[in-house]
Design goal:
This protein is mainly alpha-helical. Helix content is 49%, strand content 9%.
Length: 108
């Protein structure tokens, strides 16, 4: 007797993107010319919400840029480097909250 292998559902991603990976994916969908400033990025991405943790909590691109303290970016890598600490801080603060700790215990 054999067991059928699980069916592959190609509609769902293999991994959840959040933080810099999610931002990088959004940036690859639009044309941003560097050097640029925060306002141009806001206009280009619109009201895009970027997830900053696997639970799906999000932050607007404008708020993330404001929290970075930078207004000018010479390259996409400089933008990603500036926003990385912002996403990490948000992720860590969300995961340390009592509610997030309780959600981590529940499998749904």
């Amino acid at each position: 007797m054999g067991v059928r292998p699980p069916q592959q559902d190609d509609d769902e991603p293999d991994a959840i993107e959040f933080g810099i990976a999610a931002l990088d994916a959004r940036l690859s969908e639009v044309a941003v010319e560097y050097p640029t400033d925060g306002e141009t990025i806001r206009r280009t991405l619109g009201d895009t919400e970027i997830p900053y943790n696997a639970a799906g909590n999000t932050v607007s691109i404008g708020e993330a840029i404001d929290q970075s303290g930078k207004t000018h970016f010479e390259s996409e890598q400089e933008l990603l480097n500036a926003l990385h600490p912002v996403f990490e801080e948000m992720r860590e603060s969300a995961s340390s909250s009592i509610l997030m700790q309780l959600r981590a215990l529940v499998p749904f």
